[in-house]
Amino acid sequence: MAKHFFRQLPNLALSEEVMQTIIGDVLCHKAKSNLLKAIMWLDTFGTDKEFLGNSLVKTSEGWELVAKGESEWRFPISVTYEESTPNFELISYYKK
């Protein structure tokens, strides 16, 4: 599975599926905007609910980013640690 990394977001990786969702027409403009904002906050502040607010939800399986627009989209977050620094990966998504 291909992963996309960004120099400006060193703690984040996106799967090919998530990347194509952001680039394509799956999400409405508002959901895309909310998702990109949440991705930047996730890279900067981690899973701190004070900064991410309603864009971050804790489920029984872990954390999920929420992108609301015409519909609500959820992006499960995979967290790994490298030298005590968390790295976040968005692997898939689903419509709630």
What global shape is seen?
Answer: globular
- Name the beta content range: 35-45%
Our Rg estimate from Cα atoms comes to 12 Å
Number of domains: 1
Q: How far apart, in Å, are the first and last alpha carbons? A: 24 Å
Low-pLDDT stretches are: none
Describe this structure in words.
- The protein is 30% helix and 43% strand.
- It is an alpha+beta fold and 96 residues long.
- The protein has one domain (12-95).
- Strands 1, 2, 3, 4, 5, 6 and 7 form a 7-stranded mixed sheet that branches.
- The protein is globular, with a radius of gyration of 12 Å.
- The mean pLDDT is 91.
Brief overview:
This protein is 30% helix and 43% strand. With 96 residues, it is an alpha+beta fold.
List keywords for this structure.
single chain, 96 residues, alpha+beta, 7-stranded mixed sheet
In terms of topology, how is this protein built?
Blueprint: E1 3-6, E2 9-15, H1 16-23, H2 29-45, H3 49-52, E3 56-59, E4 62-68, E5 72-82, E6 85-90, E7 94-95
Parallel strand pairs: 2-6
Antiparallel strand pairs: 1-2, 3-4, 4-5, 5-6, 5-7
